[in-house]
């Protein structure tokens, strides 16, 4: 059991799970756009997500730290492999895909590098982080696959972008509820600012927006309203039972599984 827990912890801490979630959204993009799946883009997003998340999480911790545990060394090796792989895959993308990837990579870089005006990075900039992360997730999982395939940006894509943005925002808010006891008060997260109860009400409102956006699309899929209704209900339950007393697995595994579940529901229906 101890070995299984160590493997599971490595799976979560190395960002493999969140990278799988991002890849699931890319696969959804190809499905809804009726495009053949480009595995180059899928793996680029997977390894790029893994690299950026681990650099953001562990970059400052590793620098100058001489005593690094074996598990962390394994994560660093995996991150190095992911960085090299995503670097080579980048040059297999089309020019439009490369430009889009560079834009979002730059936004990710601002998480670590202080902005001259505010003298802080986006990660510590109060009230901004959640919107930047949501914007990046929507852009990376939707715009990179479409622009790389020379697909014109139409109104349907705009609504899909907003839907991805809202869903990511919802998941981050659930994360912030769970992490309330760990977050620095200076971060001014939404639960710190308006409280857990009001944050949950905000999530419920955003779930309505997420579901309603589906009906603004001109290309409606027969069972999509059922799929999204199931997803909204499950996400509602995750938010309803969220609290700062839950373990890290509640968000790191279960909540981050929601994009994967969304794609699986589409395959099932």
From TrEMBL:
Q: Where are the transmembrane segments?
A: 12-33, 39-58, 70-91, 97-118, 130-149, 161-180, 201-219, 225-242, 249-268
Origin: domain of life: Bacteria
Keywords on record: Membrane, Transmembrane, Transmembrane helix
Keyword Transmembrane assigned: yes
The name of this protein is: Prenyltransferase
Origin organism is Paenimyroides tangerinum
